[in-house]
């Protein structure tokens, strides 16, 4: 049975990629689009003319679609997801900006309304698998360091993915103290420290977004690396979410938790 | 409660490493050693003088130890494991050379005797985790190639680990056909082919034993790599096996299956 | 003193990048553009209104510019470069398709007209330096293998850069025979063979264009790698050519020969 | 004509490796060994019985050998090299510990005595080539960062090779300022800073000694990496030094300066 999909933020760069993705899938059909900035006919956005376009959320009827894909803005996402849940449309959310408290509230609504969904700050499958594997490997290799590489225009360091990876590793590795007596003859060469896990950030032109987790043990090493060349890669994760959304009976945070 | 350990092949290079490992662990105690070539007192082998040395298997009493660690020879291993199981000592086996049929027979004995055990051709944790992760990633990234690198003295190619990895990936990836229309202008540059998975073997002096699994998807890549610098690394896996052996109620083949 | 530049093929993708590059440099000024397909005013192409546009070669006067940058087509390049040389404009040529014989003829013309120039099939600085360094390292490390990685849409293998690298290495390494007695248990895993240098081609979605040269020696390894993410990278090499063109007194083939 | 070689420090680990190397070469012959700790006959040290062993330097006659290879101790090296030069034996020195002032003095002696020689703190060819190539690439890629990886027992950071590489790059790159406005949300993740070149030190069990130099430019990247698995690798560099020592007419510091 074909699932009906509504795309919130369909006019944006990510929304446009989602349209192409869903159009390429057999078991899903776009039935609606939501955006405050609709200027053209559906076909100008890559949509068939039967697709209904909404410029405000409240016009969308209850159970209008099975799935609500959200790539909108930090200011809109909370109300959007709440609306989807209370109107019995399962949300798949790639928009960032939800606070911990908002996530908790949405989880409660999800339980009350008996509808599942997924909130994923990162839909890149390679990054999500890297984090999952790193967490698992840390059980056996407590000695670990992280290197992340980004283009020179990224002014903040470390990357969110690197820090999230360190957090997942820290949860899972046995108590561990590495080399307390080390000496830096050039300050800071040993990098940043998150609960004993060293993080190193590289910023160079040419690079895009890359993360490497290095584990060392007696006589051996294990290295996990992911490269994101293009945000198009997020569609790999959205596809996985679409295939699994049916099996979710609550609001899940993080794509890695449905793999 | 301290577990009692017997080491079969304790005079060999791996056996000697196992002695050091077990001596360093709090919850395990070496109580016996088996080898046809005993020449010296226990302390010459790094053992305390209370440890009993056996130069033939049949002299070992029933339930003499809790765990039988076996790093012996292809010709001895089958009888050793059979003896361990029927005498209610749980085997942890790093010796290679068991046939599929022998493994099946030992499994049956294990069930009958109601005692678990582990047979692991590869105790390198980095290699075992690499294979496990590669299998899992293949679900989401059907496009994959394998590179393995070994010292120039390794005359056969590909390595057993590379081929084993390809087999595990093949079990788990969706039906997949990559580039049927490709053209080699220099023969064989596209490497070996195992069910559509390309394998490339590098042989160079300086290298030891390394494997890299490369996954590619739209706009992203995931790479898993392991380096074995020294067989000392096998002790990481033996340690994991010692910690888990208690929880096994049958004969398990492959360290990855107890992680 | 500011050098005057004419851009042949200024309406194409590479030509447009060249316009941006030259506009950003202090010591160079665009004075003309050549293209058979001129439709708009100069400013539509990112050029100032003083720039003269030509839709045929013969309209360009003798010594009209100091430098002729050529990113045109295989069918036009030979006549273009000949025209430039005989009209005393030093050519910098990124267009591919010249035969060995045509290159020889252009070299003769260059000598007769006493004007230098550069023909470079690859203006990517990272690829050019990789080849140069690989050639040099081969003197000390005769054991070497090459891996090249490209997107899955590249149907031919190996890449031109990988083969060119192997040729340069073959010229420079001492007579060498590696492992004549090796055995493939899976056909072709040892890759392609160019004069004893093994070449391995990887084709995966997500990847762009990458080359890795691996040298091994007793107890050590040296690895050179280049990644091309975008043809924008060619502008790095064009910039180097512009800075050096003045010092060339003959027609040089290959950017590596002016570094 | 066969060259005569004296090995100072022939009883040490490196000296023993030098004996094996020279014995394997056609054009060189060991004629003497110097060590304060001689206990056995020459053949116990892998030497033929004609080789003369000295336990003090002053017993070695003028022009006793053509070449003096020195792997001794920081306290002996200065007097050894001085002795070699004044007795007309060309020194190849792998011993560390000479001060800048001592090197200057030895250079003067070398000129006065009209005999060349080589002092090389690092005889690893992969490290030496890496530094040479990094210096050259910096001319074209001013954006560069360095990662060095060592075993967890190395308590100081960064490694000497990484710092030496940064110094060579700094000499050769154009004036350069990278990202002055970057922000660390976790302190020190951007690593150490040597004249604008970021250095990152990794310390993990399993690793031996590895260095990676990463260059980035618009749309491309160039990476140089060397791995030292074993000090045996130093013999590659000693061999190169033996082949070139004849051509040196002064005291050269650094193997890279004779390549």
TrEMBL record, chains A, B, C, D:
InterPro entries: DapB_C (IPR022663), DapB_N (IPR000846), DapB_N_CS (IPR022664), DHDPR_bac (IPR023940), NAD(P)-bd_dom_sf (IPR036291). NAD(+) binds at residues 9-14, 94-96, 120-123. The active site is at 150 (proton donor/acceptor), 154 (proton donor). The keyword NADP applies. PROSITE patterns: DAPB (PS01298). Pfam families: DapB_C (PF05173), DapB_N (PF01113). Residues 4-123 form the Dihydrodipicolinate reductase N-terminal domain. Keywords: Amino-acid biosynthesis, Cytoplasm, Diaminopimelate biosynthesis, Lysine biosynthesis, NAD, NADP, Oxidoreductase. Its EC number is 1.17.1.8. Transmembrane segments: none annotated. It catalyses: (S)-2,3,4,5-tetrahydrodipicolinate + NAD(+) + H2O = (2S,4S)-4-hydroxy-2,3,4,5-tetrahydrodipicolinate + NADH + H(+); (S)-2,3,4,5-tetrahydrodipicolinate + NADP(+) + H2O = (2S,4S)-4-hydroxy-2,3,4,5-tetrahydrodipicolinate + NADPH + H(+). GO terms for molecular function: 4-hydroxy-tetrahydrodipicolinate reductase. It is found in: Cytoplasm. PANTHER family: 4-HYDROXY-TETRAHYDRODIPICOLINATE REDUCTASE 1, CHLOROPLASTIC-RELATED (PTHR20836:SF0), DIHYDRODIPICOLINATE REDUCTASE (PTHR20836). Belongs to the DapB family. Homotetramer. This is 4-hydroxy-tetrahydrodipicolinate reductase. The lineage of its organism: Bacteria, Bacillati, Bacillota, Bacilli, Lactobacillales. The gene is dapB.
